[in-house]
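Figure 2 data, in text form.
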Amino acid sequence: MQIKTIYCRFAARAVAITFVIALAASGWTYGQGSPTPSPYHAENPASRGLDATLYMQTAAEYRASCYQAYNFATARLEALAKAKAALPKPFAIIMDLDETVLDNSRFQAMLLQNGLAWNPELWKQWESDHSEDVTLIPGAKEFIEKAQSIEKKPGSHLEVFFVSNRNGKDFKQQALDALARLCVLTDEKHLKLSDPKVEDSQNKTARFKEVRDEFEVLLYIGDNLRDFSEELAFDKLGFGKVKDAPEEKLYEIIKARQNKLDSGQAEQAPVRDHLGNDWIILPNPTYGDWKAPLGRGEKDFNRLTAGAFSIPMASPTPSPSKQDSPHKKCTSSERGIHGIDPAIWVAAITLLSTALGFFWRKHLERRSINRAILAEIRRILTVVRLHRDWWATRIEKEDTNHPLIPFSHAVYSKQVPNIGALTNRLVVRAVTFYGYVGFINSLQAARPEYSAAGKGAEFDKTYLNTLTTFLADYEHEFDEDFKSID
């Protein structure tokens, strides 16, 4: 039930994101370009992350893996604290946040339910507005409390630093809010997030050094090898940007990272010696650096290594001879069509008719929503055209002291929760269209501020330019679509 609720609420907010993106560039607002296209793309294959997300949300084995990792981390921490008690620096541990402390599987579920690929703009919306939907990774809170109770000497407790690639420039407070709500108390000093405007902002090396300069770091805990050392990132293996690599190089690239783990060096020691010693890794099947060579749709099947299994052709079961069986041979009428039990045929036909009925109703519903929204778009375009001509006349006569009435869009407003029902070729154009209408209405509402500042004439011209640009962009944008409702 919780997941369904989150899906509905987030779907509505996803529409708001599209509005923001459509209105973000002031250049096109005043006729200096076209509206920004939607940044969202469908996942390919559509259910790519289904089992991974279900594993995180439903599998007791996933929870067991997390508890096991944190139980082991507790034992290692106690042993390391005792072994390094004589060192001069105070103790600290470094932890990643997402999928190490914070469970974001509800975000992954939202993507799946909407058929969306991961997108940075949607992730920003999650960071910004959904701190209340984040949950805890099993065992994380108990481990953190145990770690913070360890004393190096009286009054000097071990400190926990969260080094995460969440957006620290815009959403640090939201991260703090999520941790506080989950009773994982921290402060800005112990929360080291990334700055998206810094080059290579996903690289944690500098932030690790900030902690190591002051503290003896006993443990690193994360779900991605980059949470321990940047040397294990795909892009640091000498192949350039992995996402741009040709298909034929991907096996070599993937193997190189595996070899780095198996026999390579990191942080002045063999990688394998760190694991289970001062590096503790948690499972994350949904995303991470491991997916860098993937995301190529159906071609990702080429990354699978299948066994050389010869699948035999199915042979018909021989009928028993008269000598082998005392029973008489079944007649075709007793076996049903082609030997299939009649009950199975009835069930199959019933299922098929139910499915066809369902999809036919969905088709009619979708067509109805498309027609209603297109009819409203045509009405708004007519009204805006007449209004623009009237406003131009008012400016010529220097008589613009008239009330401006916002352009209504009741049909679309009611259908925002059902935006996914729009035809794919229509949805992005419709959302940006209504986003522009919303902007015009907002501009109308700002008219008193222009007047109060003595800039009424500037408003008049700006408003006319905005109406003109809107019509230039959209007056014929839907002509082909309108034919479907005539």
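Caption note: Residues 1-36, 319-337 have pLDDT under 50 and may be disordered.
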